[in-house]
Amino acid sequence: MAQRYLNRIELLQGTLDLLILQTLRWGPQHGYSISQAIRTNSGEILQVDTGSLYPALRRLERRRWITADWKVSENKQRVRVYRLTAKGRKQLESERSRWAQVADAIAGVLNAAKKESAA
């Protein structure tokens, strides 16, 4: 259990929005399902707690990147189901492109550091 916390990665600001938008690209989901999808698809590395998830969902709603409707779940509970909007799809593509640039930039720095240490 302690090892799980050692491997925990704090998300960069804005990264949670990207992950939520990507998760909703796969289809409408309620909050718990979104957090489970992020955890499962990250190999159990990324865990989003409710204190971060729900404020992010409200922020994305205000920006009109997602919409939400109340539904009754399979176990007869009222849940908010979130759905990606057309504006959200555009934002997701923009964020994915920006994330790719950041990842390439970080890889460039890390690879340069490897070259220096090998010299």
Structure description:
The structure is a single chain. Strands 1-3-2 form a 3-stranded antiparallel β-sheet. The chain starts with a helix and ends with a helix. Helices cover 61% and strands 13% of the residues. It has a single domain (2-118), classed as Arc Repressor Mutant, subunit A (Orthogonal Bundle). It is elongated. It has 5 helices and 3 strands, in the order ααβααββα. The chain is α+β, with helices and mostly antiparallel strands and 119 residues long.
Please name the defining characteristics of this protein.
119 residues; three-stranded antiparallel sheet; 3 strands; elongated
Q: In terms of per-residue confidence, which ranges show pLDDT below 50 for 5 or more consecutive residues? A: 1-8
Tally of distinct domains:
1
CATH first level: Mainly Alpha
Describe the biggest sheet? Answer: 3 strands, antiparallel
By CATH, the superfamily comes out as: Winged helix-like DNA-binding domain superfamily/Winged helix DNA-binding domain
Shape: elongated
* Order of strands, widest sheet: 1-3-2
What CATH architecture do you see? Orthogonal Bundle
